[in-house]
Amino acid sequence: MPPVRRPKGKKAEPIDPFPADGLSKIGLAPGTAVRFRRRDTERWKDGTVTRREADGSIGVCDSKGAMRAMPIDAVEVKERGPRGGVMWIPLSAWAGRTEQLKLL
Predict the structure, then answer these.
(1) Exposed/middle/buried for 74, CB within 10 Å: 0-12, 13-18, 19+?
(2) Domain coordinates of the chain in residue numbers?
(3) pTM assigned to the model
């Protein structure tokens, strides 16, 4: 039997199971500063957004480098207030608001 020939051309790109556009739908980008906590009795822990998980939760990297999947209700986004102070806004409220697009 002759050897099996494969067609020449580009290899198929694997599909990304965690597309970046999932974050843009809720107004986030990879690297956005957030804080999170698992239970209401815990202290807030600082982290950065990494991706949107398949189940709809947010992938967060904590200060030690550990990856966590946090529900949207347990995450707050860091923002500057009108006078320059730090404000923490719940992600559920952050995702529901509209944002002005940047010019240029």
Answers:
(1) buried
(2) 21-96
(3) 0.69
